Amino acid sequence: MPFIHNKDNSRGKIRLLKVGLTGLSSLLIKLLSMGIGLFLIPLTANYLGTERFGLWLILNTFLNWIGMADFGLANSLKNALAAADGEQEQEKAKIAVSSVFWMTIGIAFLLGIVFSVAYPTISWSKVFNVTSPLAKSEANIAVIFISILFLVRLVLSIPSHIYYAYQEGYLYNIWDVISNIISISSILIAISWKANLPVLIIAGFGTPLIGNIFSALHIFVWKRSWLMPKITYFRWNQAYSLLKIGFHFWLAQISAILLLQTDLILVAQIFGAVDVAKYGVTLKLFGLISLVQMSFLLPLWAAYTEAIARQDFQWVVKTFKYSLWISMIWVVAASGFLVIFGQEIIKILTNQEIVPDINLLLAMSLTTVIIGFAQSLTMLLNGLGEVKIQALLGLPSGIVNLILSIILGHWLGLAGISIGTSVTIALTLLIYVSSIIKRIKNFNSLSKHEKFS
Questions:
Q1: Cβ(412)–Cβ(364) under 8 Å?
Q2: Three-state DSSP class for 132?
Q3: 4 is a domain residue
Q4: What is the pTM of this model?
Q5: Would you say residue 327 lies in a domain?
Q6: Which of 128, 372, 373, 382 could be disulfide-bonded to 331 (CB atoms 3.0-4.6 Å)?
Q7: What is the span of the domain harbouring residue 92?
Q8: How many other β-carbons are positioned within 10 Å of the β-carbon of residue 263?
Q9: What pLDDT, in 10s, does the model give residues 265-314?
């Protein structure tokens, strides 16, 4: 089917409306999550103790690696569905969803086998650098529980990408609210029963799967039943094509994880579990800034892809520029606020032992601003389907980050870990900016040609 040209602004307004709805609902949910997180920090920190609380934070970080485990299939599915929506091709969408779903099932099965073989050979107490007898005894079983949850959530993450591909993230957010409510209720019950760390993990990270299950039922049974994964719609060629594209997303995700999700492990190895709690709480506090920003940036990914499928290049350029300016105003202002008041906020939430010094706050602020700029650029690159550049830079930048963070960590202390990340991201941004400037010039040229043709 030929591309559908956008002859008026109605489609662009609909996109912005959907982005706004998804962004606003996501922000409200993030605020809810923030409130829950701020409530749970002193609760879990006091209940578990400093060392086991650090272990809790690290295991929670592992669940953020789910996006890496599917080799980028879910992200390539998002682009495929958004493009199919722009071209009004339901058959392509059916094949894409079924191909990704059954491939993900196979990946989860293989990962389960690999973990079963590797688990007995690893000393998990040494990996997490815990020393107390209680933390050592709980580490092994906690890893098993986290791994099972990881594999189940891997498969159940597919519906969320479908919602966002159709620019209906605001519907998925309803189920996210339910998941948050179930999670905090379960944690409170577990603590009241004086549960150990593994049970607390099931309560906090396992029970939200109920919301994920209902979101899958909603999209596949009620909202878009024609997308229900069926083995008859599985196509090897489509699966291979999506996996090939997804592989570039996967390499980019490895870069993001090496850049943003390894700090706590480095802190554990260099400084110990006590400093993990200090760094982890500070990281969570500054992470709230990115959560707010990404509430509105993430819906733009599919919107960019769908707009390009309709050759609405002018909308893409204009929206990108606005998103970049608004993002930077927010990130800079919020980071400055936390530099000034961060110590007092953390002191209220936790205890004196976990309060960071000003150097760590300044380092986190710098890193947050650079990440905020990078996220605006990355959403456009993802929407364009240009992930090769991210894939090529992924592993080298991740390795550079690890080396810099280790060197600067030994030299500057905890602040050095964060500075290593900011320097690495700043270097990669130079290439991202160059690529985006070229594409914007090309879009402007195409828009002028369309106007006068």
A1: no
A2: coil
A3: no
A4: 0.74
A5: yes
A6: 372
A7: 10-448
A8: 23
A9: 788 888 876 778 788 888 888 988 988 898 889 899 989 998 888 888 88
